[in-house]
């Protein structure tokens, strides 16, 4: 129990010390003008709260819709590939090719097709999230134990029973891994879409703050983005822990 | 050309050959689609137009590509040095590891590109920004891989070193670091695949020189052929970079194993 | 009911375009309620034979019948129970949910059957562990759960693929007794693959000794020991005699193989 406390207390105090060090350095005038004092950033977050909230909402909305769309697409594709094994190589190849197109090339295409609009934002986000979820799905559905597969054969289970009672539960640790990797990417996708010229969103706020040299606001919006992406990852880890028993969790992000 | 390098050159040749073949096929399908369905150039420029634009602007694209590759290399060098230093420190000091690793794991979940505007403000609009972004991106991959590698020797192997009276430094130099090399290369390989594209993104956002800005300029001038030409060069450079890492890995592992 | 008959079954695998004969002309019979054991050197195709009886693999030639029915029919009618070497419990289900799994797959609401999982838990001695997850059980307990699961649809034939191969010797002996008791209560026909001569003689009425490359039946040993069996019988001349005969047969094969080389 005491080690669990120190597991939180130790990094927590390091974080506080670092913040304090920046604060003191700022007070002593040692920081460049691009790095504001932490207190100023917090002040800005409170003072600009309404504006930040407005833009944050639009980013979260984009990220959530895009994420949901990616999950839907990845699950449908995964189900299809599971039912027709022959599609697997083709699906993975297409996925890899799409995934290797740089996002700065995808964004202009989507703008040409859809204009600077909500569908463009959501599609771009979904495009970024799709691949990790899809790969997790395929890997997971392929990871069914051979003996368990034979058991379902001996029991004369239908393909649907095999999918719902065996393949999908077996795949969950991999699916969660994909979902966890994709969650921060959803936030990123929303930001990239906003950088291409939308009117709302934290990305817009960031870019404008950068151009107008409003450093406190820039840091405040970046801080919110960090909380959103780390928070979405953390939230999924928690859900994963509830859904899966401890011994079934795939260990973190493999380097 | 010494003999040891021959297999590495063969790897590069084979992989780039395969890449060229796949690209040629994709471009051929794409060209056919554009011709058959008569897709207008602003929706999807034809590969022929893209290649023509590539030839017309060869020197411009070439110099920008060299600049981007230079930034990427510099960034990766910085990150290798930083990552190795920190990984060794973490392995030597359990306290340091327990204090900093949780923070690193949290920070790691944040996409580097999402904080790019902040990096641009802090590091300026010149090459430093691209270098910093590439360094930050690669740092986590390489550091975590190196740490895993340094910790990979079994308890038995460490006890064996202890029985022979090896000190901390000798365990590190003779056991942990050699054991970590394959892991480090895995980290490098993953990082190298995205490093150039990430540098392009940094340039796209900051307007610093390089392939990324060229992509943006081409887009704002509605020159879609040029835009795709830069993307093509960027993707090819990224793949070449990745392949060179794979070849270097083969070369080093051959020599150490 | 519960008769198992295998008639001149052969199996040829196609490995990278090379034809490998795994089993050649295997014939064997098990009467209703009999306990059969398959024993032989590694790679003689014991598990392959068992999987063909369970309709997991098709035979290349020959025929198999369970109560006069084709294995695929027997499988679809849930007349086959199968126990793997590793328990193959689904880790996300509790013991009770694992044992209920076959009922869910059959998906017919039969109130009589709904009581069975709990009765079986008692039969295999897992009372009190209904809500445990497989990872919380020892290897022996996991295998008990797997046996209960294989019995939940009241199969006619129970196929066991080295069910206790991964257990330590003491647990293994205890599980042998348990399985004999369960078999006595259910009157089920059983065919078990094993690596242990002692286990084969202790459990079985009829032992099929297989030879390798290609897999074929080298000898059939009838075990004339009374039931219920007990460890005391292990010093019985009938027991040691059967053990000697099986060992002799396996040993002769090895000598033959040495000459072949």
From TrEMBL, chain A:
Annotated localization: Cell membrane
Chief place where the protein resides: membrane
Pfam families on file: BPD_transp_1
InterPro entries with a match to the protein in the record: MetI-like, MetI-like_sf
UniProt key word Transmembrane helix: yes
Transmembrane segments: 52-80, 92-116, 122-143, 171-193, 218-239
Keyword Mitochondrion: no
Tree of life domain: Bacteria
Membrane topology category: Multi-pass membrane protein
UniProt keyword list: Cell membrane, Membrane, Transmembrane, Transmembrane helix, Transport
Domain ABC transmembrane type-1 residues, every copy: 71-239
One biological process term in Gene Ontology: transmembrane transport
Any single Gene Ontology cellular-component annotation: plasma membrane
Name of this chain's protein: ABC transmembrane type-1 domain-containing protein
Organism: Telmatospirillum siberiense
Higher taxonomy: Bacteria, Pseudomonadati, Pseudomonadota, Alphaproteobacteria, Rhodospirillales
UniProtKB/TrEMBL annotation, chain B:
Main location: membrane
Residue span, ABC transmembrane type-1 domain: 65-245
Cell membrane listed as a keyword: yes
Membrane topology: Multi-pass membrane protein
Protein name per UniProt: ABC transmembrane type-1 domain-containing protein
Superkingdom, taxonomy of origin: Bacteria
Organismal lineage: Bacteria, Pseudomonadati, Pseudomonadota, Alphaproteobacteria, Rhodospirillales
Family the UniProt entry places it in: Belongs to the binding-protein-dependent transport system permease family.
Organism: Telmatospirillum siberiense
GO cellular component: plasma membrane
Automatic annotation (TrEMBL), chain C:
InterPro entries, sorted: AAA+_ATPase, ABC_transporter-like_ATP-bd, ABC_transporter-like_CS, ABC_transporter_ATP-bind, P-loop_NTPase
GO MF terms held by the record: ATP binding; ATP hydrolysis activity
Organism: Telmatospirillum siberiense
TM region(s), chain numbering: none
Keyword set, alphabetical order: ATP-binding, Nucleotide-binding, Transport
Record flagged with keyword Electron transport: no
Name of the protein described by the UniProt record: ABC transporter ATP-binding protein
Family: Belongs to the ABC transporter superfamily.
Residue intervals of the ABC transporter domain: 4-237
Gene3D superfamilies in the cross-refs: P-loop containing nucleotide triphosphate hydrolases
């Amino acid at each position: 129990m005491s080690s669990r406390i120190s597991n939180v207390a130790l990094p927590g105090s390091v974080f506080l010390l670092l913040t304090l060090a920046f604060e003191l350095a700022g007070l002593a005038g040692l920081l460049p003008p691009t790095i504001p004092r932490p207190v100023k950033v917090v002040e800005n977050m409170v003072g600009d709260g309404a504006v930040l909230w407005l833009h944050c909402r639009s980013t979260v909305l984009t990220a959530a819709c895009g994420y949901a769309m990616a999950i839907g697409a990845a699950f449908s594709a995964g189900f299809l590939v599971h039912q027709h094994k022959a599609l697997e190589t083709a699906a993975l190849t297409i996925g890899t090719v799409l995934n290797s197109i740089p996002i700065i090339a995808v964004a202009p295409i989507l703008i040409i097709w859809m204009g600077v609009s909500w569908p463009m934002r959501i599609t771009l986000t979904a495009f970024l999230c799709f691949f990790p979820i899809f790969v997790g799905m395929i890997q997971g559905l392929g990871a069914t134990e051979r003996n368990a597969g034979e058991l379902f054969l001996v029991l004369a289970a239908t393909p649907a029973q095999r999918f719902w009672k065996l393949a999908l539960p077996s795949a969950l640790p991999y699916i969660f891994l994909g979902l966890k990797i994709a969650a921060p990417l959803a936030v990123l996708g929303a930001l990239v879409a906003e950088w291409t010229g939308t009117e709302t969103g934290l990305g817009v706020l960031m870019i404008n703050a950068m151009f107008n040299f409003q450093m406190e606001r820039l840091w405040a919006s970046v801080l919110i983005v960090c909380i959103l992406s780390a928070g979405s990852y953390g939230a999924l880890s928690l859900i994963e822990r509830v859904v899966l028993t401890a011994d079934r969790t795939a260990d973190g992000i493999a380097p | 050309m010494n003999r040891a390098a021959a297999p590495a050159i063969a790897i590069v040749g084979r992989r780039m050959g395969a890449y060229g073949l796949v690209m040629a096929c994709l471009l051929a399908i794409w060209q056919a689609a554009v011709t058959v369905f008569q897709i207008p150039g602003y929706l999807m420029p034809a590969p022929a137009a893209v290649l023509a634009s590539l030839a017309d602007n060869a020197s411009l694209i070439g110099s920008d590509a060299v600049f981007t590759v230079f930034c990427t290399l510099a960034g990766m060098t910085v990150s290798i040095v930083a990552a190795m230093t920190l990984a060794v420190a973490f392995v030597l000091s359990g306290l340091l590891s327990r204090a900093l690793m949780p923070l690193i794991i949290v920070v790691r979940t944040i996409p580097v590109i999402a904080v790019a505007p902040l990096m641009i403000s802090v590091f300026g609009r010149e090459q430093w920004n691209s270098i910093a972004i590439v360094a930050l991106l690669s740092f986590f991959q390489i550091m975590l891989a190196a740490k895993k590698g340094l910790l990979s020797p079994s308890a038995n192997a460490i006890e064996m070193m202890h029985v022979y009276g090896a000190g901390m430094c000798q365990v590190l130099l003779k056991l942990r670091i050699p054991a970590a090399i394959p892991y480090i290369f895995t980290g490098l390989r993953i990082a190298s695949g995205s490093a150039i594209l990430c540098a392009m993104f940094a340039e796209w956002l900051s307007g610093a020189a390089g392939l990324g800005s060229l992509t943006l300029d081409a887009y704002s001038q509605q020159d879609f052929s040029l835009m795709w030409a830069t993307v093509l060069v960027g993707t090819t450079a990224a793949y070449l970079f990745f392949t060179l890492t794979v070849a270097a890995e083969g070369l080093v592992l051959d020599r150490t194993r | 009911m519960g008769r198992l008959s295998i008639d001149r079954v052969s199996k040829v695998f196609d490995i990278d375009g090379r034809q490998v004969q795994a089993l050649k002309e295997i014939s064997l019979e098990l009467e209703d309620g009999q306990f059969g054991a398959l024993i032989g050197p590694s790679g003689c195709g014991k598990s392959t034979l068992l999987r063909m009886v369970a309709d997991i693999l098709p035979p290349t030639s020959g025929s198999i019948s369970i109560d006069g029915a084709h294995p695929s029919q027997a499988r679809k009618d849930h007349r086959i129970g199968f126990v793997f070497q590793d328990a193959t419990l689904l880790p996300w289900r509790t013991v009770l949910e694992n044992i209920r799994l076959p009922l869910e797959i059959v998906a017919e609401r039969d109130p009589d059957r709904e009581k069975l999982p709990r009765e079986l838990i008692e039969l295999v001695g897992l009372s009190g562990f209904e809500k445990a997850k497989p990872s919380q059980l020892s290897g022996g307990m996991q295998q008990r759960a797997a046996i209960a699961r294989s019995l939940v649809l009241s199969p006619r034939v129970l196929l066991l693929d080295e069910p206790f191969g991964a257990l330590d010797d003491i647990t293994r002996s205890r599980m042998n007794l348990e399985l004999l008791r369960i078999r006595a209560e259910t009157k089920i026909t059983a065919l078990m693959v094993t690596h242990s001569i002692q286990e084969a003689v202790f459990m079985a009425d009829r032992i099929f000794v297989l030879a390798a490359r290609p897999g074929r039946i080298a000898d059939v040993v009838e075990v004339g020991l009374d039931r219920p069996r007990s460890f005391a019988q292990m010093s019985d001349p009938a027991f040691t005699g059967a053990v000697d005969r099986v060992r002799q047969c396996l040993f002769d094969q090895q000598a033959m193989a040495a000459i072949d080389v």
